[in-house]
Specification:
Radius of gyration: 20 Å
Oligomer: single chain
Protein name: Patatin
Keywords: Hydrolase, Lipid degradation, Lipid metabolism, Plant defense
Enzyme class: hydrolase
Order of helices and strands: HEHEHEEHHHEEHHEEHHHEHHHEHEEH
Number of strands: 12
Helix content: 40-55%
EC number: 3.1.1.-
Number of helices: 16
Family: Belongs to the patatin family.
Distance between the termini: 17 Å
Length: 399
């Protein structure tokens, strides 16, 4: 197989367009972007053959929490398959359907549910043991610098009270940042109140070590798109002093696909009237939801979308930025952990229906996403995106 997009972009100064894929956090709702990615990869395979994989086309793939897990699945090398990606995009949803009921076991009788409710006051809702075992078994000792294209996966260090941004490029330059992929995935998925924090230590082989005490990257960047773009800008600045290259990152030389995991915005679940009566407990536990986490994650994701929309629209390159998100989730659909067979299948159907919906873009005046006349459906937009990715890859192969 040809050299990946990331390696080509680093080795050739003639690259015309930087390609970015970003995947939000959202627990079991990772099925929604999983469905969209399977469609995109199928279009790439129609253009370039059945061996085409997502990792071959993107300079950088960023993911937070469940998005970090999807990112790793798409970019971790499979030593049993000539170091091709561990998962094809079409296999992501099968993974979620099979494994998330074991990661988030559903309690079916009253006494077990009551005991679990009391336990939530003294510890996380789930012990994370199955998730840890699964990721360690799946990823073994694969490390960050081995990914097949550059990745960016955020977590948050609760000891230092600062974000930790894991990236392939950093891992190649600094052994202390070259963590095991299993540790990174466990960390970026450790949502407060749901799963326990994760600690681990890296070493450089010369006696130096670095300790990490991490939780879910969603507390810092539930939508990691801006992290991905800023990472590329930083790499350009490090390797090329020409400021024009950095300036062009804000428009025609960057192609961005940002995938959300859905949100319950239009359900209007919370109101000021209700929240004015809440104490500390209600902000953390409220009819099966965690309002404080919902608010933080949605707020950070929307700010990133608004900022990027502003940049691309101001330069008249709005079609270079495609954000696909569903704000209509209701009930169990909007949860991160209701991993019943019925709800998981419903999320898969939501992903399929997203393909049929019109392309939407945030209105800079209202902050709300609105359908864009004349730009077709999300499926049509992804098909066009696949064409651009294929053309860019072929261009790099000839330069």
């Amino acid at each position: 197989m040809e050299t990946t997009a990331a390696n080509k972009s680093c080795s050739s100064g003639k690259t015309k367009t930087f390609t970015v894929l970003s995947i939000d956090g959202g627990g079991i709702r990772g099925i929604i972007p999983g469905t969209l990615l399977a469609f995109l990869e199928s279009k790439l395979q129609e253009l370039d053959g059945p061996d085409a994989r997502i990792a071959d086309y993107f300079d950088i793939i960023a993911g937070t929490s469940t998005g970090g897990l999807v990112t790793t699945m798409l970019t971790a090398p499979n030593p049993k398959d000539n170091n091709r990606p561990l998962f094809a995009a079409k296999d992501i949803n099968d993974f979620y359907l099979q494994e998330t009921p074991l990661i988030f076991p559903q309690h079916r009788n009253f006494m077990t549910s009551l005991a679990n409710w009391f336990d939530s006051f003294t510890g996380p809702k789930y012990d994370g043991k199955y998730l840890h075992s699964l990721l360690n078994s799946l990823l073994g000792d694969l490390t960050l610098k081995q990914t097949l294209t550059n990745v960016v996966i955020p977590a948050f260090d609760i000891k230092l009270l600062q974000p930790v941004i894991f990236s392939t490029n950093d891992a190649k330059e600094n052994s202390l940042r070259n963590a095991r992929l299993a540790d990174i995935c466990i960390s970026t998925s450790a949502a407060p109140t749901y799963l326990p924090p994760h600690s681990f230590t890296t070493n450089d082989g010369n006696g130096k070590t670095c300790n990490y005490d991490l939780i879910d990257g969603a507390v810092a960047a539930n939508n990691p798109t801006m992290l991905a773009i800023s990472h590329i800008i930083r790499e350009i600045a490090k390797k090329n002093s020409d400021s024009k290259d950095v300036e062009q990152m804000e428009g025609k030389r960057v192609l961005v696909l940002s995938l959300g995991t859905g949100a319950p915005k239009l359900e209007e679940r919370y109101t000021a009237a209700k929240a004015s009566e809440w104490g500390l407990l209600s902000w953390v536990f409220n009819n099966g939801a965690t309002p404080i986490i919902d608010i933080f994650s949605d707020a950070s994701a929307d700010v990133v979308d608004f900022l990027l929309s502003t940049i691309f629209q101001a330069r008249n390159h709005q079609r270079n930025y495609l954000r696909i998100q569903d704000d209509n989730l209701i009930g169990d659909e909007s949860s991160v952990d209701v991993a019943t067979a019925e709800n998981l299948q419903r999320l898969a159907e939501i992903g399929k229906k997203m393909l049929e919906k019109p392309v939407s873009r945030v209105c800079l005046e209202t902050g709300k996403c609105e359908p864009i006349p004349g730009e077709g459906t999300n499926a049509e937009a992804l098909s066009k995106f696949a064409q651009l990715l294929s053309e860019e890859r072929k261009l790099r192969a000839t330069t």
